[in-house]
């Protein structure tokens, strides 16, 4: 007999389901359910890929009655899960001495370690269970025991979590304060990172070495304390002989790190112990003063300068303390450095001076003190931008005016952009007014950058309507194209700026709506048909109906773009108000492809159709009969073609209507009309 396919898999699933029930019963301490399930489920069955058994669950939760049931049923006390946790390790993490006693009595290995090298004693110490730690030590656990993984001792675990009572206990039992883990970190380094004053005091009293550095980064306990901002611990370590100038492999000392983070008291303690205030780290040769200035830590910077920090130091980026202070926006540091005679003209490797860094960081309040100290308002960075550009971008009219009064020029940057470009695209109307009223205003108003964009183009592109209107008042040309051929009018059409378009069109005249540009050489109506609101489209097609018949480089009309975007209302507006191309076959085909037969009667009413084109209009086209008067006025032959597309019932009515209309037209043309009775 052939066995059923998949039977082993179903059996495995059933077994796991039963094992899960046993695990969950043990976890919640349901001894009755555990006893019942053990009659059919192996005691060491695992519920999932974690390889945890019911004994693991009961031990972690401290359910000793369930543990006893499982052990009596033959559970393996040393069976490990996927991460090599034994029931003893899990019980220690849970802190149950009774559970530990039960497992040890069953022969569990007291010094077994998990995959990370964590023993039961380490687990109890890390979780803050002093009774469990004491119990394990009394039962013979190694006080310095650790596995082959991270080699973390119970003392390190207790220090890492700030359990000072366990630290005292372990030290009393002879814990080794010199031991290090796999990275070379000692218990003192763990507690310096954690920030426990009692633990540090206990370790120092026990003779813990203070200058041990780890193998990977060179971090010491003092550097750990500085990194975390533990000022009191840093003071304790320095008082105990910690080397103030010990450095990591990257050259950063405790003083440097504290200065970078603004930890004033740690900086003070390091200086008092003789730390070098000018020691630079290796990566950029940056000394503590520069890094403090970069962070805007005024008190730290003042303390460093008071103790001899070099105010003229330069890092490998060419930056000075003043440049960093200006970039951080701290006025008090800037003033202190200027008083000490620093060079306000110094430029970094990108050509930026302190004045540029201040304005680029939107710290325009520093413009006045820097200019008063003699800063060059026309200093330009490697992209050709001066402080005036950044102040204009920030929209600080006062700073812009001050720079202009000090002789700042509005010459274009390397990309051909002027300060007016920057202010316009950000919508800084006050600054735009200032720049336009200045001596370079007329030069800038129609200046084109490297991509052909004017300030007006940028303002329209960012929908800065008020700025665009001001630029138009100043004579901005809405027809100047970018190198892609797009004009401000096209951009406004695309953005749907219905309120601005009349102003642009008035300023640009008929040419504004007729110009073609962009990647596909479309006119403004192409852009609007694809993106703009209906009101914008209606304005454009009303102002220039002929634009509706303009084709782009691919031969597409504005209505094609509306149809591709599913904009039925826009397409209807274009067909009703715009000039339609002839022959109409491509247009009718486009409507058919877009599944918009309801728009075909508009075309039929407005332009003559050949018999072949009438065939493109589907029979029973909705709304087609409404086009009859216009078609009949144009041609009786076309009216017959229209009637042929109508349903039978409508066809008879249409013919009667056509005859009546034709008779009325003849009577009108003959000089008389039939008066109603």
Automatic annotation (TrEMBL):
Superkingdom of origin organism: Eukaryota
Protein name: Ankyrin repeat
Keyword Repeat: yes
A UniProt-annotated Pfam family: Ank_4
The ANK repeat ranges on this chain: 50-82, 83-115, 116-148, 150-182, 183-215, 217-249, 250-282, 284-316, 317-349, 350-382, 415-447, 451-477
Entry keyword set: ANK repeat, Repeat
PROSITE patterns noted in UniProt: ANK_REP_REGION (PS50297), ANK_REPEAT (PS50088)
